[in-house]
Amino acid sequence: MKSLDVVTFGETMVLFQPDAQLPLEYVHKFQKQIGGAESNMAIGLQRLGHRVGWFSKLGSDPFGRYVLQTIRGEGVDTSACLFTDEAPTSVFFKEMRSSDAVNVFYYRKNGSASLLKPEDLDEAYISQAKILHLTGITPALSNSCLETVFAAINIAKQHGLKIVFDPNIRMKLWGKEKAKAVLQEIASYADVILPGLDEGKFIIGKTTPEEIASAFIQRGNQTVIIKLGSKGAFYQTAYESGYVEGFKVNHVVDPVGAGDGFAAGIISGILRNESLQETVRKGNAIGAMVVGVNGDMEGLPRMEEVESFMNQTSEKRDVIR
Amino acid sequence: MKSLDVVTFGETMVLFQPDAQLPLEYVHKFQKQIGGAESNMAIGLQRLGHRVGWFSKLGSDPFGRYVLQTIRGEGVDTSACLFTDEAPTSVFFKEMRSSDAVNVFYYRKNGSASLLKPEDLDEAYISQAKILHLTGITPALSNSCLETVFAAINIAKQHGLKIVFDPNIRMKLWGKEKAKAVLQEIASYADVILPGLDEGKFIIGKTTPEEIASAFIQRGNQTVIIKLGSKGAFYQTAYESGYVEGFKVNHVVDPVGAGDGFAAGIISGILRNESLQETVRKGNAIGAMVVGVNGDMEGLPRMEEVESFMNQTSEKRDVIR
Amino acid sequence: MKSLDVVTFGETMVLFQPDAQLPLEYVHKFQKQIGGAESNMAIGLQRLGHRVGWFSKLGSDPFGRYVLQTIRGEGVDTSACLFTDEAPTSVFFKEMRSSDAVNVFYYRKNGSASLLKPEDLDEAYISQAKILHLTGITPALSNSCLETVFAAINIAKQHGLKIVFDPNIRMKLWGKEKAKAVLQEIASYADVILPGLDEGKFIIGKTTPEEIASAFIQRGNQTVIIKLGSKGAFYQTAYESGYVEGFKVNHVVDPVGAGDGFAAGIISGILRNESLQETVRKGNAIGAMVVGVNGDMEGLPRMEEVESFMNQTSEKRDVIR
Amino acid sequence: MKSLDVVTFGETMVLFQPDAQLPLEYVHKFQKQIGGAESNMAIGLQRLGHRVGWFSKLGSDPFGRYVLQTIRGEGVDTSACLFTDEAPTSVFFKEMRSSDAVNVFYYRKNGSASLLKPEDLDEAYISQAKILHLTGITPALSNSCLETVFAAINIAKQHGLKIVFDPNIRMKLWGKEKAKAVLQEIASYADVILPGLDEGKFIIGKTTPEEIASAFIQRGNQTVIIKLGSKGAFYQTAYESGYVEGFKVNHVVDPVGAGDGFAAGIISGILRNESLQETVRKGNAIGAMVVGVNGDMEGLPRMEEVESFMNQTSEKRDVIR
Amino acid sequence: MKSLDVVTFGETMVLFQPDAQLPLEYVHKFQKQIGGAESNMAIGLQRLGHRVGWFSKLGSDPFGRYVLQTIRGEGVDTSACLFTDEAPTSVFFKEMRSSDAVNVFYYRKNGSASLLKPEDLDEAYISQAKILHLTGITPALSNSCLETVFAAINIAKQHGLKIVFDPNIRMKLWGKEKAKAVLQEIASYADVILPGLDEGKFIIGKTTPEEIASAFIQRGNQTVIIKLGSKGAFYQTAYESGYVEGFKVNHVVDPVGAGDGFAAGIISGILRNESLQETVRKGNAIGAMVVGVNGDMEGLPRMEEVESFMNQTSEKRDVIR
Amino acid sequence: MKSLDVVTFGETMVLFQPDAQLPLEYVHKFQKQIGGAESNMAIGLQRLGHRVGWFSKLGSDPFGRYVLQTIRGEGVDTSACLFTDEAPTSVFFKEMRSSDAVNVFYYRKNGSASLLKPEDLDEAYISQAKILHLTGITPALSNSCLETVFAAINIAKQHGLKIVFDPNIRMKLWGKEKAKAVLQEIASYADVILPGLDEGKFIIGKTTPEEIASAFIQRGNQTVIIKLGSKGAFYQTAYESGYVEGFKVNHVVDPVGAGDGFAAGIISGILRNESLQETVRKGNAIGAMVVGVNGDMEGLPRMEEVESFMNQTSEKRDVIR
Q1: How confident is the model at residue F100 (pLDDT cuts 50, 70, 90)?
Q2: Which residues of A are catalytic?
Q3: Shortest Cα distance from B276 to chain E (angstroms)?
Q4: Beta bridge partners of B92
Q5: What integer best gives the mean pLDDT of chain C?
Q6: What's the pLDDT tens digit per position in E108-134?
Q7: Nearest to D104 among F251, F294, F321 (CB)
Q8: pLDDT tens digit string along C187-215?
Q9: pLDDT score recorded for residue C293
Q10: Annotated catalytic residue, options B5, B166, B260, B296
Q11: Which residues of E touch B28 (CB under 8 A)?
Q12: What is the DSSP letter of F85?
């Protein structure tokens, strides 16, 4: 029996959150947290009851230890995580000028995760899992990271892992041309692909959810789920397709992490062999729950919370005392 | 002449307020405040210009001193307050996962207030007042607390105090059956009863404000005022009844304490012999003012502020410089 | 060539901002900032690319140094700023009971700026500028300040500086009668006057924007621009007049400083010889940008930000990563 | 029977404590507390088990309410406290450049307490007490304050109150000549006088503790106690005199408030008719306890703590768990 | 092969650390941490490179999750940890009146860990380890906890685990008589016992380190190590004995956790078969390192840090930039 | 006449200061400040009354603006400062494990300042100054920085500027061999060199202050001043030499910045043509003053403070009220 359900890898950085909604030059205090799409997904999936492994290459420094402690503390398997003395753990700063204008400032160029290389991959570790989860961030970090992604795909194919690909395009990290070519190639190996509408347009060059999904299906993907923000999502396979409406969110507190929670919900549905429609509905629910809570991963729900939310989302929970 | 207008008693705890809207496991810092329905009412009533006595049994510890200092600092008479070495002052933690989901975690089982017993009551002290204010929280704390409530009712009846009863049901503290039986019995001694709509349903088993109020009146209560949240309140006596519309609140910041402010407004109206309609309108105004300010008791208004609010509530106060 | 575009002077105080939305007696921590209408305008104008001089009389104390460092740090010329040992730098405290109720508590009576006197003016310094900016706050601080304002007007007139007058009425500082008389007189010397609607009513005794503006024009002002809050502004000269609609603001975070930003926009337009309509539109844009950011001067935009805002204000900027 | 042991009056201000040991221009956050020599003494004495009344004239503003709430919360009788709309409650800022260099910046000129005048005194209230406590700060605030001090002395003399005078010289508040003349005159009415060594030198013009004390005794004071800092104190009456050694303090955290605690200890000893030597020893003990705790009044001990400290001061209390 | 080196269990609580050195009633803000002797030891030992399992019974609440996340994050195996709905995770508050006076206030009576009972023990899990670590805290929590300790001893004896017993006497939790009897009995089963000098006196009734150690040896313990604070430690077996001097600590920041770090050092030495003298020296080093860092477990060193400290302790590490 | 006294350049970074003395992985909050040896010296010198220019290449980002605002706010001329879009403003984090163990973590590799290149130098700007101040940090940042240092030396030589060189060796930034060769070469151009004892040993290969100084003098330097920490400094020229004792520091709060303050004192003495002994004494005084205050540049004194400190350093300044 497989000892892990899912394995994922990628850069998790230390995030410095400003304590005031001001241009960053006027912010005096910052709060340390972690930020990383793959670890968000891993933590989200672990909370839904699955066994998840995550790894990266961290700096042998206090910030690297902090990233490890946080993710391991959440119950994710971190036994394959690597450390290096050659580069520091990356950091980034969030700026919130107003509730509508969020910006990020990265110190991740030549960071520890960019040193990941194909030889770092532990084939035995990866082959324990049923699913390999990949994002489009990792190949943008460095050439060796790009090679590592393809090496991981290779291992996955050899050992029968499904590949779930969440494009997560970060234009700040690489050029448009290279991004498009690489993401297309990774997409071509994915069993399941989870683009946002703009991401789908960018990769495949079509416009509507239906067109984008059909194009991916024609290129060989089994399942395509296109995220449509507050409107929900559109899914398509060779056999079925449809829209699943999003859950109403009273007040969006922090949109970051919603896509990672969505991915966790989708993978959970796949692992539980739920219907695609139900799977997408769960992804939508988690996305909606995450945006109502501050923090990237703090608001990721446990399974009983997801179920409770899906049943009674329109009712307001009062102070219970 | 009576030297106090109102006497009340019950548990006031130290409240630890999280400094971030996050699941509690992710909150790093907490702010110390106090929380207690009876002391909120007492402070609210004192600010309206009345002489109020409050007491409890506090732990002989820094937190007990803090509760005493805070309530005494507000001008409430605390000379009958008791201290014990046998149990600590209770504490509780608030969790604000999002603006819609507030939860509390109590450490009040076997706390100092639960040791209150009939012998602790100072008959001479209570008999100085015109009104005894009771909540449904105290009888839920322990059997000796329950007995103390009935002993206080007895003293009130002997010395001609009116009894105002605010059910304040806390389901976390006791079983449904016992709660119902005890609250019904306390209600039967009250001159004035101030249930919320759900509380009225729970105690008396009816559905509409009119039915609930009529049922209480038939059981012998003089005055019934049913709180309807943002919609205002419904009042009924043997001679009159009616709805009083609520004041519009632009932005609910913190709903806790609104019911206690409402009770303070009602008791103030009774003490000033104002018409019941005007009395309920004042209760509504205070409730509306409290929800617009953070904190349980910080937002309780002074009389001139209530009057100013009632006259011009729809106008926005600009920055005055 | 003139080495400064604009010179302005007036009291900048240290502002203590509460760290919680509570009545001030319940606030534990305060954050130090600066507050001053003239320095806000100066900083705003400097960010738009102009050379601005600001001066005041500050106390020879740490708070005076802080005010100087902050304004100088922003690139405003402070070389004419004076210091005194005879009075402390003024301070004030903001109270935010709720988002609708902001109040201020001044400790500025007999503060250092109130000691400004005509002899303090450096004629050579002022005469370097093209425009003298005045507010109605300075003459309210003391008799010597009032005389200083008229002495500055005199210098401006002698050296051919335009005078831009922003009434900024502070009723807490002086009596109604005196205020009206003085502001009328200052207004009579202004080339450009920027009253709010209520300010216009108070000074000139008319009701509609058109009536107010006409009255000023008849009294000899060249340009009148009447601020209408979220509705925009009305402008009038001898030759043209019109309304310019305001920009939509999603969420007003902090209204303070909007008028000062508006003034900076207007003066920038004048210095660049832009059309009056375009000038007012820029003033509106800056006002709208400022209210969306916390702080009085922190949210004042740089020119490229203003242009970007004016072009795409209705679109929401996403998290850019 | 007298219903109060001691009455005192004087200015209590809101103190803003910096959150960092830095020149004040570089401190971002400040914590609100109260500061006032007379209220420190009153709180200290109340904790030792006596009934104490304190009053001042406070501003009708949030800071005035805060001062009142804090002192009343400590159990001091504040029923004679006055409020005014004519001036604000004074504030001051502490600067801690280093642990050796503390400075204060007052905003107390023309503050509410400076408006105290003889007519404000409630003769009936003062006459309830056995002892009137005075400091040399109040007469320095304004002429009407100076007159109020002498009016209070007059009431005390008429009603048989002892006068305890603690010079507390604040050179920042008045001229040397006037200070000397006034303090000499107040001293001449005092039964007990508690100068520091430098204060004694300043008022009476002698050098050693013995000389200073003898001079005061010759001028008619009953009891003179000269504070010698860490070395303890020297006392003298017509009948006895001597040195009482100070208690060893491991680490001075905050020296402010030590003199006020000393005064509370002395007055407590007088009220309990303890020997002068024991009285001074208690004063020394409280002074030593106060300097080991942050805050002006927070560290003032309760009687059982004083006794425990006097018995076992050299032993270190371990963590008790 | 054994898959764990050491297993330990006991209550870990959420600790609220005051943000100011003040009597607790005057502290406004508290910082959340964890506190628990057994988990401190477990974390310390894990950092030294060993495989450690820790378990407790935690409340199914956010604080229980926080305790689990923190300990698991440190790499300790928590797979045997239990959760309950029947009682909350215990909390406690630290008071630091001064650097010499620390006090704690527990809310742990009837907390979740007190519900631990013999049936909760997982024999298979415990039997994986080479050493069982016990403290004298657990048997003081409740009768079922006491029984659980003896049941664990029984399992250890059956499966050949060594028992290391660290008395950690908490007099606040139980009566003197019962404490003495129980601790004596647990001690009788221990292979290694690590009392402080006072603890040794209390349990065995002797005075000097030599006498205490001899008495334990005669009662059958293999190894006795008596902690002597800054003076180091005394060890004795049937074959050898001696004093090992302590390391000099420049500035004791926080003494809590030193004993747990000492225990971790001792157990590490045992697991590595180092000489007893070297083992005790390592325990001393870790104890000295822990008291120089704030926090109970944050300062526990990694092995390379211990070695570096033991080699160069007298030299001062400069700022390395 | 020269319009600047001194010009300096080099990297100033944003420094994130932990809010707790803990290993960095356990610190939650960080405070933003600036850190840079050259800007510290520039600010220090400006406070002593001189006209100083500083420049660097900053990122066109909020952190770059913050660095500029802070240094400009202090009155240093920043008109030659450059901005780039090609690299971010560098940041670094301080770790304070204990008061004895401070560590820094840089994110300055490929930062904006490392892009400084000879063409960036403004010959006209530099030639306005009498003295060029250089540190050994800048040549370690990149090859183009190294070339820039030599280009600046060239300009200085052409325009008759004196060169003051403060080695400030940062071993984390470059290899030992290269460091030694480069620093030797820069030293060879310096009129005045200010090494610490270890720096002198490293550069010139001698042991005692006298030997090191003589070696530099023989290589052609005019003045050598060797910093000896708390012991003061040794100076030597062709004509005189001697030791100047350091000032006693009661409590070292933060040693960072002391060397930069020392350099400011030396340069001030040179500019004022004071005797070398007096100059070194002033450097010692400033160094001693800086280490008693938190922060790198906050504690740099104004001239009148230096003089007051030099006159009365052994007396303790009391609370002045």
Answers
A1: low
A2: 260
A3: 41
A4: B15, B106
A5: 93
A6: 999 999 999 999 999 999 999 999 999
A7: F321
A8: 999 999 999 999 999 999 999 999 999 99
A9: 80
A10: B260
A11: 31-32
A12: S
The answer to whether the CB atoms of E172 and D294 lie below 8 A apart is no
Is ipTM beyond 0.90?
yes
Task: In whole angstroms, give the CA distance from residue C267 to residue C47.
Answer: 12
Mean pLDDT, rounded, for C88-97: 94
**What residues of D act catalytically?**
260
Amino acid at C62: P
Helices (H), chain A: 37-47, 62-73, 123-127, 143-158, 176-189, 197-204, 209-218, 258-271, 276-291, 303-312
D150: left (phi over 0), alpha (psi -120 to 50) or beta: alpha
- The whole-angstrom separation of Cα C85 and Cα F191 is 41
Phi/psi of residue F249, nearest 5 degrees: -115, 120
Subunit partners of chain D (3 or more CB pairs within 8 A) = B, C, E, F
Q: Write the DSSP assignment of C70-88 as a string of letters.
A: HHHHTT-B-TT-EEESSSP
Identity of the amino acid at F225: I
CB contact under 8 A, A73 and E70: yes
Q: Spell out which residues of chain D touch residue F294, defining contact as CB-CB under 8 Å.
A: 20-22
Going across the sheet that includes F13-18, the strands are A101-107, A91-98, A13-18, A29-35, F29-35, F13-18, F91-98, F101-107
Size of interface A-F (CB pairs under 8 A): 63
Out of E26, E100, E104, closest to residue D298 by CB = E26
Average pLDDT over residues A5-11: 98
pLDDT in tens, E133-188: 999 999 999 999 999 999 999 999 999 999 999 999 988 888 899 999 999 999 99
Q: What is the pLDDT of residues B192-229, one digit of tens each?
A: 999 999 999 999 999 999 999 999 999 999 999 999 98
**Burial of E143: CB neighbours in 10 Å, binned 0-12, 13-18, 19+:** exposed
* Residues with pLDDT less than 50, chain D: 313-320
pLDDT in tens, E18-62: 998 899 999 999 999 999 999 999 999 999 999 999 999 999 999
> Could you report the per-residue pLDDT of B145-181, keeping only the tens digit for each?
999 999 999 999 999 999 999 999 988 888 899 999 9
Domains in chain D: ranges and CATH: 6-11+41-55+117-320 (3.40.1190.20)
CA–CA separation, D6 vs D54, rounded Å? 9
Rounded to 5 degrees, φ, ψ at F53 are -115, 135
Best probe of the D interface among C60, C93, C106, by most D CBs < 10 A, is C93
Q: Establish, for the pair of chains A and B, how many residue pairs have beta carbons separated by less than 8 Å.
A: 45
Report the residue of chain E nearest D249, measured CA to CA: E100
Q: From chain E, which residues contact F within 8 Å (Cβ)?
A: 250-251, 253, 292-295, 298-299, 316-321
D250:E22 CB<8 A: no
Residues of A in contact with F25 (CB under 8 A): 62-63, 65-66, 69
Q: What is the pLDDT of residue A172?
A: 84
- Residue in chain C closest to D64 (alpha carbons) equals C25
Residue of B nearest to C104 (CA): B321
Q: Are C126 and C120 contacting, i.e. CB atoms less than 8 angstroms apart?
A: no
C251 chain-A contacts, CB cut-off 8 A: 98-100
Whole-angstrom distance, CA of residue C132 vs CA of residue C126: 8
Residue B185's pLDDT band (boundaries 50, 70, 90)?
very high
The residue in chain A having the minimum alpha-carbon distance to the alpha carbon of residue F27 is A32
To the nearest 5 percent, what fractions of chain B are helix, strand and coil?
Answer: 40, 20, 35
CA distance B299 to chain A (A): 18
Contacts of A272 (CB under 8 A, 6+ apart): none
Joined tokens for residue B222: 């003089």
At A309, the amino acid letter reads: F
pLDDT tens readout for residues F181-204: 999 999 999 999 999 999 999 999
Asked if B243 and B227 count as a contact pair (C-beta separation under 8 A), the reply is no
Q: Which of B24, B29, B88 sits opposite E62 (nearest CB)?
A: B24
